[in-house]
């Protein structure tokens, strides 16, 4: 059963999950078809006095187009048993696959945004984009640039205001 909780109650668990193949961002297209994308880079913080979830999406990704259209996204945190599912979602494109159908995950209508949350997620965040920041290669540390951007496909950082947060209870 999902229960609305304060985002501050799940920050530590969320941050730990970002480092462990357990996070899917969900967005939706103009035909209301949801899409999932695995992320490993992100954070939670306070910006302009508001709770923010930061996610990094490359312009080449299908999810980039969807977030640009809807200006929202959900972040969904999973248990270890979903690592293979999360990895698969990060290895194929929503342009070619219906990731919900293929993984048998369940989209649930969100309360405040167009993009759904994922029923099987143990923690879910509904976020509305309030700012976008493109990574500037000239201002980036050379070691990071060489390790993460050999192709030149620099991320856009989305600052999503956390509108609500849910935790799944057995």
CATH fold call: Pnp Oxidase, Chain A
State the separation between the terminal residues, measured CA to CA: 6 Å
Question: How many beta strands in the DSSP annotation?
Answer: 10
User: How much beta, percentage-wise?
Assistant: 35-45%
Number of domains: 1
Low-confidence stretches: none
Q: Please name the CATH architecture.
A: Roll
Going by helix content, strand content and strand pairing, the class is alpha+beta
Name the CATH class.
Mainly Beta
CATH superfamily: Electron Transport, Fmn-binding Protein, Chain A
The quaternary organization reads as single chain
The main β sheet shows up as:
8 strands, antiparallel
Order of helices and strands: EHEEEEHEHHEEEHE
Count helical runs: 5
Residues in helices, as a percent range: 10-25%
> Cα-atom Rg, whole angstroms?
15 Å
Morphology call? globular
What's the average pLDDT? 96
